[in-house]
Amino acid sequence: MAALPSLCNSPPPMESQGKKGADPRPPSNFTDLISTLPLEEGWAPLRIRKYQGFWIPERVLQGIMDMQQNFKARPDDLFVLSYPKSGTTWLKALTYAIMTRTQYPLDHHPLLRQNPHEFVPIMGITYAKGEASELEAMSSPRILNTHLPYSLLPHAIKSLGCKLIYVCRDPKDVLVSRFHYNNRMRPQAMEPIPFTKAFEMFCEGNCPYGPIWEHVLEYWEESQRRPEKVLFLKYEEMLGDPPRIVKRLAEFMGCPFSPEEEKEGVVEEIIKLCSFDKMKSLEVNKTGKLRPDFVLTNDSFFRKGGAGDWRNHMSPEMARKLDRITEQKFEGSGLTLDAVDVEAAATNGDVQAQA
Ligand code: PPS
C-alpha cells in the first residue's frame, strides 16, 4: 500500500493516550452565571439552558465555558461536528478508520473492540469531567468532536484554520432519534416523554443544542465561505452513496486513497467495518459503556439506522409542519435536505443503513 500523507500516519488510539483520572487544574467556576440562564426541563432527566442562543445540556455547560476559554487547538486538529443524533457515531468511525488505515489491518482494527466515541472524544464532556489534560496528551493529528454550533466553537479552532467536518440529517429523523435516546435515559419510574411533547419542544427549538436549523445553517454557511476547511455532509447522502462519501472524506482529510488501495478494496472494507450492522453486532456496542457512570450502554448509539423512521412516529400533518419550518429557515441559503431522495426511497420502505 502506498505511503500516506502525514495526517494519516500517526494518530494513536485513545486506548494508549493520556492518563485517566481528573485533571489537576480545577475547572473554572461558572455556576453563578449558569443558574441565571433560561432553563427547559421537558427533556428530563436532561436539563438544558439557553446559552448564546442555543440550548445546551446543563451538565456540560461549565465544561463548555471552560473549553471556550482554554482549549488549545492545533493546526492539524480535525473536528467532527454535528447536531446530536445526526450520524456523529458513524462519522467518527469513518474518519478514524480512514486516518488509521495503514496502522491497523482493517480486519483487526481497534474499532472492532472499542466504540467510535472512545477514539474521537466529546470535548465538552471531557472538560466537564475536568479531564482536559487527556486531550492535551493526545498525539497529533487529533480527531475531536463537539455538538456546539459554529458560533460557540473555541476561537482558536477558527483562527488556526482547523479542518471541520459537519454532518446534518433530516430534522424529522433527528427528532425521532432524540426522542428514543432521551427516553432510554429516563429511570424506569419516569413516564416516557410523549412524542407530541417532544415534537412541540423540537419545533420551538427547545431541544438539546437546538434550534437545529440555526445549528445546521451556521456550518452550511461556513462551508460555503471556506470549502477547503469545512466539509458539509448529509446523512442521507452517506446512506445513498457510501463509496463517494468515504473517498471525499479521505481527500478532504488530506489522505486520499491511492489507486492501489482502491483496487485492493480498501474503501469497501472501511465502509463495511463502519456499517450500522457491523457496528451494532459488536460485543462492545451491545453491552459496553463509554464510562462506568454513564447511564446508557453503547447499544443506544445504534438504534435503527437509516432514513424515514419519522413515518412511524408522525402524522402527515406533523411532518408537513416540520418540513415547512425547515424550508422557511433554509430559504435563500441554497441548502436543501434532499427531501425528494428520501421521499422516493421511503415509498419503497425505509432507507436502511448499509450492511
Ligand atoms: S450522538 O449521540 O449524537 O452521537 O448520536 P449520533 O451518532 O449522531 O446519531 C445516532 C443515530 O445514528 C445512527 N447510526 C448509524 N447510522 C448509519 N450507520 C452507522 N454506522 C450508524 N451508527 C449510528 C443511529 O442508529 C441513530 O439513528 P436512529 O435513527 O436513532 O437509529
From TrEMBL:
Chain ranges of the Sulfotransferase domain: 75-334
Keyword terms, alphabetized: Transferase
EC identifiers of the protein: 2.8.2.-
Region of interest: Disordered: 1-28
A Pfam family that the UniProt record links to this protein: Sulfotransfer_1
EC class: transferase
A single GO molecular function term of this UniProt record: sulfotransferase activity
PANTHER family assigned to the protein according to its UniProt record, in alphabetical order: SULFOTRANSFERASE SULT
Family affiliation: Belongs to the sulfotransferase 1 family.
Protein name: Sulfotransferase
Species classification: Eukaryota, Viridiplantae, Streptophyta, Embryophyta, Tracheophyta
Gene that this sequence comes from: LOC120106599
